[in-house]
Predict the structure.
Amino acid sequence: MPLTRRHFIRKLAVATLALAASALRMPTALAFWKAEEFAPGTLDATLAKLVPQQAITNSDQITLTIPQIAENGAVVPVSVSTTLAEVKSISLLVEKNPVPLAIRFELSPDVEATVSARIKMAETANVIALVETANGYFRTKAQVKVTIGGCGG
Amino acid sequence: MTSIRIRSKLIDGKTQLRILITHPMEHGRNRDKLTNELIPAHFIQELTISRNQKPLINCVMAAGISKDPYFSFMLKGGAVGDSITIAWLDNFGNRDIAEHTVS
């Protein structure tokens, strides 16, 4: 079929629409922030929302690197890495924060299961790294002693 | 001026990404020191990282992340010239996007 002007314009329109649709899909492809996951409450209440039936296995295949004593609770550096296979997401939770869930990283298979961030801690508490894999949920925890709380910002 | 600073480094065939974002990350319980009024919660909710237009990492977060958030990631593979796009959205609906080329 010869490429007439009409066909060319039609093709151009289709391509433009496809491009626009993919561009529009970019924000919606975001991991949709859910208020219920970040609701103030206890750690158990938050875990109940994140993990169906709270079926979480303690694992030694997760490495949580965090200072034992945090001088400033407003900035606590954390690194999580895991040798577990097929990691879908890594979440960081702080037991005694008003909002226990700090962050959830949803990782594609093109990303190593290693993440770092800086979190706030209101007081001395356990920090939990929750790893979601294709085979279920795994966690490890570490206690961090906070000498100055993160409430003052 | 962009609020996002990106550093990348190719290490053993992987791409290390370090990201620093300027944002107050207020959780809504702090008070203004002068007026004693509550400072409204203002924090980044979503962060996406894409390489060559392919989304690789989605993050959802709240004010449990420190002011001026810092993140680092390790991407599998990568080459000089890869385009890294980072975008965030906060609870006020503000957003910012930054592009970076791996060199």
About this structure: DSSP finds no helices and seven strands in chain B. Chain B has a mean pLDDT of 93. Residues 14 and 77 of chain B are 5 Å apart (CA to CA). Residues 4-31+38-101 of chain B form a domain with the Immunoglobulin-like fold (CATH 2.60.40.10).
